[in-house]
Amino acid sequence: MAAPAQDRHPPILLRDDSWLSFNARVLEEAMDPAVPLLERAKFLSIFGSNLDEFFMVRIAGLARHAPDAVARFGGRYYFSPFELRQKLIRRIRALTARQYASWERDLKPALAAHGIRIVRWDELPEDCAAEASALFEREYRSVLTPVAIDPDAEEPPLVPALALELLIRVQCPAGEDLFGGGQDEVRTAFMQVPTRSGRFLRFEPEDKPDEILLLPLEELVGAKAAGFFPGCAVLECAAFRVTRDRDLTPDEDTGDLLSEMQAILRKRGKRTIVRLETSAAMSAEARAFLMRTLGVASDEQFAVRGPVDLTCLMELRGLPGHADLLDPPLPPLPSPHCPADRSMFDCIRDGGPFFLHVPYESFDPVIRLLSEAADDPDVIAVKQTLYRVGQDPPVVHALIRAAQAGKQVTVFFEIMARFDEENNIRLSRELADAGAHVVYGVPKIKVHAKMLLIVRREGNEVRRYLHLPTGNYNCSTVKQYTDIGLFTCDDALADDVSALFHAITGLAAPAAWNKLVAAPYNMRERILALIDREAAHSTPERPGGITLKLNALQDPEVIEHLYDAARRGVRIDMVVRGICALNPASLPPEAAANIRVVSIVDRFLEHSRIYRFANGGAPEYFIGSADLMPRNLSRRVEILVPVESPALQDELDVILFTSLHDRRKGRRLLGENRYSHTAGTVQHESERAQVSLYNYYKKRLERPGFPQDAPATEY
Fold first, then answer.
1. Are residues 555 and 665 in the same domain?
2. Model-level pTM greater than 0.85?
C-alpha cells in the first residue's frame, strides 16, 4: 500500500527527522574550532551515544513493522515505516561520515599537535611496546576468550549489544585445526575486547616525555591474537559492533511487573540486530561472512573509516595536564538559601519557597535534606519517586537509612526507565530489604514525575516538606544537566502531592487538584486552556505571550493550538533543545513571524522545563517534569508545579530571557528542521546563556543580604 502524498510544508514534522536535526547540532559543536579540543571530542562521543539510542529505540521500532505496512503519524499524516526507515538510514550515513571525517581529518591531527597521539600497534616505540606487552600478559590474556564460529550453526552467535568485538580469521595447517576440522582452511573466531576499564592505554615514550601515546585496546589485543591460535596463521583481525533492539516493554496485562521485567532482561542478548558497525579495513570476504552469520541485511551495515565506536572519545577529557583543552571550570556554587549551619527543614520552613538550579548550584542541599530526614527523630515518613539515580546513589542510601531507622518510607521506583531497568531493579530490592515500601511501577504507564515528600512532627502539628525538581535524583547527571528544583512546605501543594502518591500507589485518581497540574489526569486540558486563553485575550495593542523551555515539542494537538494562537497575534517564544515538530513555514508569514524557536547545545545538557503564560500582565509560571509529547501528556505520570512567589518568577524570567537571547550557542529555527549555525559567533561569547546564568548565580551569592533584598527583574 503506497503512502498518501505529504504536504509541501507539513504543519507537524516527523519526530525522527527533528531528532536527527538535533543530533546534527551536537555534531556541529564537535566541528566548531572555537570549542576547546577535548570538548569537541566529547561532543563526537555524545553524537555517537545518541545514535546508539536512536537505533535501539526508533530504528528498531520501525524495523518491527511489516515491510508493506502503512502507519499514521500525528493523527493525519501517513507514511510507510519501511520507507521512513530507509530515509533515516540515508541521513544517518551522511551524518556518520561527517562524524568520522571530523575525527580523522581534524580532531585527531589537532590532538597530535598538542602531544596527544592515538597510535596503531606498529607505531609504538620499542619501550612502549614492551610495556604494553607486559600489561597484556598481566591484565588481559586471562580475560580474553576466542569463540569459534560455526557458519553452519542453526542459531547465530550471541554477540552482546554495543560490545566491541574482533573478527579473527585464521588458517591452520592440516591436522592442526584448532576448531576440530582438521582441514587446511580458513576459520573464523570472535573475541570481545574488555573495554570496561577504558578503551585507550596510555604510554609516555622515553625519548619524548611531553608526548602521550594512546593505544586503542583492540590494537593490543589484535597484535597478540596469534597467541590464542598456536600453530595457525592469523590472516585478519578487524573490529565490529552490533546494536540490538532495546524495546523492553512488558505485556500490559502482566500481573507481576518485576518478574516480567527480569525475564525480559534475561533475553535481551537475543534481541534483533538493527545495526552492524565494521571497520572499513575489514575485508569484503570477512564482512560478507559476518553479515551472513549474524543475519544482517546490507542496509543495516555501516563500515566506518576510523575506530569502531567513537563514544570512547569521552575518555580523553580525563587526560591529566591538558586543562587548556577543556572548558574553563564552573564549579557548582553553594545555595544562599541553604547555609551549612542551619538544618534544611529550617531553611525551607523559614526561608522558602526557593529554587535550586543545578549544575550552577550544588545538588548538596537535596542530599542534606534526605540525610537529615533519615536521622531526624521527628520525621515520620518519606515518600519519593525515582526514575534514574545512577550506580551508587546517595539518595537511595539515605532512604535505606531512613527505613532502617523505622520511618515510613515509600518509594515509587520506575523499573521501566529505559536503559536503567537492571540498575533500578537492583536498587529497589535493596530498599525493600531495608524495610521500605517499594512500588515497582505500573504496567501500562511510566511514572516520570519527580517528587519528594517528607512528613515531620513539629510540636503539636505535622508539617510536610517538598522537593519538586524538573530532573532526576542522579548525583552524576546533576553535574551536567540544567534542572530546577523547588523547595517548599506549601500545604495545598503538599495535599496534591500526597494525593498523587496515593493515585500511583493505589491506582485511584484524585477527584480534584488544588494547584498541581498532573498527567495523565488534567495536564493536556490545562495546557490547551492556557494557550487558548492567550489567544482569546490577544489584541494588536496587547498581544498575548507564551514562553516555553522544553526538551521536546511534538504533541500534534498542542502544536495546532499554538498555531491558532500565533494566527491571533500571540507572541510565542520557545527554547526547545531537541525534537521540535512545529513548523512555522506551514503558517502564513504574519503568523510565522510570531513564533521564535531557539535550541541551545552547550557544555551542559538543557533539561529544565519552564512554562510561562502572560495572562494579560499577571503571568502564570510552571516548572515540572513534562515535555509536550503525546507520551508525556497521555501515557506517563507527570507534574507541572505552579510558581507563585514573585521572587521565583523573577528568577525564571532571568533564565528564559537569557536563554532566548543566547547568540553564541543558541541556534534559531530558520525553516523546516533548519537551524542557524554557531560557527563564527565567538564575538557573542558575552551572550552565552549558560555562562551568563552561572555568573548571575555567582553574583547573587556574593550580594550582601540576599535573599532578603532580591530585586525584581523585568522580563
1. yes
2. yes
